[in-house]
Write a structure and sequence with these properties.
Radius of gyration: 24 Å
Order of helices and strands: HHHHH
Strand content: under 5%
Oligomer: single chain
Helix content: over 70%
Largest sheet: none
Structural class: mainly alpha
């Protein structure tokens, strides 16, 4: 059996677009990326499942004419898992929008500290000093809170 070229191209486009969106900072784009990747992989399962056949029920016909039920079962399981993951990320995006007024993922403080030390040319010490990390965390919170305060005050007006 040879798969349809259009279906293979559709899988490539869905997964490629999904990966591109998954790498964005906005959680709404991440959600769309997860959905596209999930649909692309489901389509890949159906292509890999082979040709359509009769229902896989005992006594309904010869065994060689029956469809393989495994790809359909895997696709149904993947749909349920993708639904749960999408609901979880939607809840995170909504909570982020409630707290900060946007749904973008912020930089990790430890990553910022390591990048700053690498730019300075200093050796990176994997052991962390809690007082420096707490100070840097407080400074980073101040940066985001200033923008939130302005956005919140503008929203109230």
């Amino acid at each position: 059996m040879t798969p349809s070229l259009a279906l293979v191209v559709a899988v490539g486009v869905l997964v490629g677009t999904g990966v591109y969106l998954l790498l964005e900072r906005s959680l709404s784009r991440v959600i769309i990326g997860i959905a596209l990747i999930g649909n692309g992989v489901n389509l890949l399962f159906l292509i890999a499942g082979g040709r359509a056949g009769g229902p896989p029920l005992n006594g309904s016909g010869p065994a060689e004419d029956m469809a393989d039920p495994l790809p359909q079962a895997m696709v149904l399981t993947a749909i349920v898992i993708t639904l749960g993951l999408t609901a979880f990320v939607l809840a995170m995006a909504y909570r982020s929008w409630q707290l900060h007024g946007h749904d973008e993922v912020q930089d990790d403080l430890e990553d910022r500290r390591l990048a700053a030390r690498l730019l300075e040319g200093a050796e990176v010490d994997t052991r962390t000093d809690d007082s420096d990390l707490e100070t840097e965390a407080a400074e980073a919170r101040d940066e985001t809170e200033e923008s939130d305060v302005v956005g919140t005050q503008e929203g109230k007006r």
